[in-house]
Amino acid sequence: MKKIVLFLIIGLLIIGCSTAYKSITAQMPDLSQINDGVYRGFYDVSGTPVKVTLDVILQNNRITNIEIINHFRSPIGKKAENIIWQIIEKQNLDIDAVSGATASSKAILKAVENAFQ
Questions:
Q1: Is residue 111 a contact partner of residue 35, using CB atoms and an 8 Å limit?
Q2: What is the C-alpha to C-alpha distance for residues 81 and 51, in angstroms, rounded to an integer?
Q3: Strands 37-44 and 62-72
Q4: Which residues, in sequence order, are bridge partners of residue 72?
Q5: Which of 68, 53, 75 has the alpha carbon at shortest distance from 6?
Q6: pLDDT tens track for 10-56
Q7: How many whole angstroms separate alpha carbon 17 and alpha carbon 95?
Q8: For 77-100, how does the pLDDT look when each residue is reduced to its tens digit (9 = 90+)?
Q9: Can you name the residues that pair with 55 across neighbouring β-strands?
Q10: What pLDDT shows up at residue 3?
Q11: Which of 2, 13, 66, 94 has the highest CB neighbour count under 10 A?
């Protein structure tokens, strides 16, 4: 019961927060200039409780996997985690946010970008 109340509070906070996060954009770095390996990225969406930590696996200048380590979000924010497959398929961060989970979508995209910085 406490978890449900906590998720409801988080959800209300996100709904009531500024929508400035909608203008957040992420740029894909030049992967040909980055060595193979596992890169950790983090992003905290200002004005919301959304935070993401993830690992990006790079092999042969391609993202081969993205593993979400921690994603503090509302229950609907979980839907945004599906964009990792689009990032891997397109090898690009120019991905549309998941409807209803914009803050989490933007956080995941920025965390991938930050992993390579």
A1: no
A2: 12
A3: unpaired
A4: 51
A5: 75
A6: 555 555 455 667 678 899 999 999 999 999 999 999 888 899 999 99
A7: 23
A8: 999 999 999 999 999 999 999 998
A9: 40, 67
A10: 66
A11: 66
Amino acid found at 96 = D
Q: What is the DSSP letter of 53?
A: E
User: Do residues 87 and 66 lie in contact, with contact meaning Cβ atoms separated by under 8 Å?
Assistant: yes
Q: Which residue has the tokens 């993202």?
A: 63
Q: Reduced to 3 DSSP states, what percent helix, strand and coil does the chain have, rounded to the nearest 5?
A: 45, 25, 30
pTM of the full predicted structure? 0.82
Single-letter code of the amino acid located at 38: V
Collapsing DSSP to helix, strand or coil, 54 comes out as strand
Tell me the average pLDDT across 98-111. 94
Q: Half-sphere exposure of 21 toward its Cβ, with a 13 Å CA cutoff?
A: 27
